[in-house]
Amino acid sequence: MSKAALEPVKKKFASEVISEHAQHGDETLVMKKAKIQAICEFCRDDPAVAMDMLSDLTAVDYLMQGRETRFEVVYHLYSTTRRHRLRIKLPVGEDGAEVASVTGVWKSANWMEREVWDMYGITFEGHPDLRRILLYEEFVGHPLRKDYPIAKRQPLTRREDPVEGIWEQKHILTGPSAGAHFRGSYDIE
Amino acid sequence: MTSNSEQLAVQERVALPTETMTIMMGPVHPAMHGTVRVVVTVDGERIVHADVQVGYLHRGFEKECESVTWGQVFPYTDRLNYVSPILNNVGYAMAVEKLLDLEVPERAEYIRVISGELSRIGDHLTCIAAIAMEMGAFSIFLYCVRARDIVYDRLEELTGARVTHAFCRVGGVKDDIPEGWLEKVRGGFDEITGVIDDIDGLLTKNRIFLDRTQGVGVVSMADAISSGFTGPVGRASGIDYDVRKDHAYGVYDRLDFDVPVMDAGDTFCRYYVRMEEVRQSLRIIDQAIDQIEPGPVKAEGAHRVVLPTKNETYNTIEGMIRHFKLVVDGIQVPEGEAYTYVEGGNGELGFYCVSDGSGVPVKVRCRPPCFIVTGQLGNMLVGHTLADVVPIFGSLNMIGGECDR
Amino acid sequence: MGIELYGVDSLQKILGWARKYSMFKQPFVTACCGMEYMSTMGPRYDLSRFGCEFVQFTPRHTDLLFVVGTISERQAPVLRRIYDQMADPKFVVAFGVCASSGGFYQNYAVVPGIDQIIPVDVYIPGCPPRPEQVIDGIVRLQEIIQAGETHSQRELRQLAEAKG
Amino acid sequence: MPADTYLPLIVFIFVGLIVVAMFYVPAILMGPKNDNDVKLEPFECGNEPVGEPTVPFNPRFYQVAILFLVFDVEIAFLYPWLVYYREKPTVWGLVIMGLFLTVLGAALIYVVRKRVLRWA
Predict the structure, then answer these.
(1) D neighbours by CB contacts (3+ pairs under 8 Å)
(2) What is d(CA B373, CA A108) in angstroms, rounded to the nearest whole number?
(3) What are the tens digits of pLDDT across the range A139-157?
(4) What is the ipTM of this complex?
(5) Which fold has domain C9-163?
(6) Are A171 and A162 within 8 A, CB to CB?
(7) What angle separates helix B267-291 from helix B389-396, to the nearest 10 degrees?
(8) Can you give the pTM of this predicted structure?
(9) Class for the domain spanning D7-113
(10) A·C CB contacts under 8 A
(11) What are B129-150's pLDDT values in tens digits?
């Protein structure tokens, strides 16, 4: 986490930098989201920075903390040659939550961006096939948003769904309570 | 003669056009570990396109972490990479300790190293068992499971559970080592080494195994770096990056071990790097057992973080209040964010934790090494035959819990 | 329809004995319980001592659906389809707390217990259950089979009769 | 020497049928029948079946099947000839089988030279 990673980027994209800190030793740059592709290409190609691996890409929802821009997309970059790291954070507003995709720069971004789209609803324009990765297509909404209730289920199938043929009528047992409705005990002895 | 077969091929393509067939190697498939569906478009036997669909074991890890206190997240981290659970515990514990700037006593670090390396041996043994069994070598599966049961016995004696240990705590580990445990751990070494040598003899020179794994699923070093390959899969493609060596955390700088790196980048290398790493882990545990000294197991004097001992809780009012506050409101982690990374079973296992000062985390992001590796499975499969899907997928060691979280 | 045999006691005993000691297992393995399932199948705990060793991955050749691990909402239709495609007589064992009740994943992603989707005969608690618990669950199921109709069979039969 | 009666053959076939019936008839009689439409669909790893199975694929696979058939039947013909030849080794028998083997040997050489199977 040496300073060497942060200075060149800050010098080159001074206009983009919003703020900078090094909490707990993690060099972090908070930047505007407009030129993220150029920044990432610079990070990868510049010999002094040489971030040839995108270690992690995720987003954070600051709805409860009352920030003006709700989301924040976080990139963790790593250099296998220089052995140093850098974190880039892009504040992203809620309406029109859109960031340029960096799959062109690193191949590992492909699935991570799909997961951020699936979980937070932040679209990555320029992504080869942006579709849900962890949830099923019929799922409505983005679960990791703070305003999505944790237990709001959208079941694909339940026991009483008719299977053609034998299960057509409602199943004969009492209603589908929390799965504990037929604890019959078998008197075997 | 060869021109003759080219003409033959050209005539065929013109006269007898063929169509591709879509085959679903779905979640219920012996080689797909139950949670991945690969929709393969096949021309004859050659794979033209493979769409890998994961998410069948998405259990909402992050959503659950955002609704429990910092201390209660540990059981969830067990079930991320459930093949080497203690490595996840250590990763998450270090992330919170980084946020708290907390010092962990040396003995706790050594216990974390010993149990973590035991967990890593279990991970590699399970992966080798899966690779071999899916290619028909069922006896290797039985050898590996027998050796892994030894590891599970030692970890059960230490933590109380065979698979889901929840052994680490913020600021150290749950309990000290039971009596005579270290000798038992060392006693199990020769059996594990015996099993590894048996597998070496059976598989590494086995003609069928070599033909099916060498030169299959090759990933060049440049591709591997751009695709974020870390861990055994990355080291098999030539990336000399091991978090324990390059960013030594805990007491790894006092232990010497070497990092096996091969550069062919095919399925055989991924298998062989894991075999070598089991031996290195045994070496690490051996040295750690020699270097460990008695001492406290939890951070001293960190009243706001570490639970008081049982007799303090029941006999003193301060202990009881402290215990009550810690359990109900959780550890009050100061506001901020931190990213720590450890060498997990499949690679760089990172934890990015964000806290807003309350007892409940805002975000606990786990960097899933096998999710990022499986992302490239689609490109690796193109051009291979249908039978190669099994060894390639087996060698990536995709674990459902860590991949889908 | 099968000949009404449940009346003939001695033949039913033979039938129960034959079915209980020759169960072909469809391991529907998804999550951490899979590790304990491997240990149960391994040489040390060895589930095959109870006649329940042979592992088949197609529902056509199996009569015991061993649901091992968490069933997420995305996996539910797959589980339902596998259960429907299994040959009769079929039994279902829920292996582990996540399969029995969703475990400590009570959220949008996980089915709260597979009895929300298919009828279950034996629930094995534990997260993951120890191999001994699994063997006890299998022995429990064998007792139920020996006693005649298991729960899911009775339900299927009643529904078949109700359908006429 | 032709067997004077065919009784052993009939008994052999009859016992075979009995054993087969022993497995199938009880299963058909005593097995519960709960058919539904999903059960009759093809099994595709837990998904709805996609695409139709009869897709025109490469004729090379058909070629491999035919080649196997030819050489397998050749071995099938060798067995009775060998048993018979061992009892009464005549030159004429050798000539006939030699002719048979040379024809098939030529076919094998042709296949190898044409590199028909070299399409991996």
Answers:
(1) A, B, C
(2) 8
(3) 999 999 999 999 888 888 8
(4) 0.87
(5) Rossmann fold (3.40.50)
(6) no
(7) 20
(8) 0.89
(9) mainly alpha
(10) 76
(11) 999 999 989 999 999 999 999 9
